[in-house]
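Q: Entry one of two.
A:
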Amino acid sequence: MCLAIPAEVIELLPDGMGKVSIDGIEKAVSLALLSEIAVGDYVLIHVGFALSRISPEEAKDTLDALREMGELAGELNLAGLAG
C-alpha cells in the first residue's frame, strides 16, 4: 500500500528542495515535481517527493483521518484484536 501524507511547506531550499511540516515534524523533501510552490502551501508527500498541491482543508481532513486510524489501531491492539 502506498500512502501520501499531507504537509505544509515551511521553507524553500536550494535545488528544488523544501522543508515541510508534517503534523509538527519537519522534513526536507523534493519540490522538483511541482511548479510555483510557496511557503504556506500544502502538498502531498510520498517517499520524499511532493506529488501535488492540496487545499489546507483537504490536508486537515486527511491528517484528522490518519490520527483517527492510529487511535483505532491502538485501541484494537489494547483489546488484542489487531494482529
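Q: Entry two of two.
A:
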Amino acid sequence: MSKKFTFDDLENKEIMDEKHEEEKELYDLIIPPGTPSSLIYDMVEMFDLEPINRKVNVNIVNEAEREVLALRGDLETVQEAEKFMYEELDSWVSSKDY
C-alpha cells in the first residue's frame, strides 16, 4: 500500500530543503607559514573567504599539533583561491634576489 502525503509532509519537506541549502559544504585552504600577509588579505577580500584557525599535526622533527591559518569557503572558490595563491607565491619567490 502506498503512503499518502499530507500538507504537513510537504511543509516539512520545504523546511528540510531550506536547511540543506543553508548547510553548504565548506572547505578549508590551509595557508603555508611564511605567506605574506598582504597576499592573505587580498585572498580574503577577492574571494570572500572566512579566515579561521585550524589545529593540524605537523611532523617536522617530532609530531606536534600546531595552530595554522586557513581560509574557509565553498569548494569552487577555495580551488580558485588556491590557484591564485600558488601563482602569487611563485611570482613572489621568483622576483627575489638571493
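A: Comment on entry two: The chain has three helices and three strands. The radius of gyration is 21 Å.
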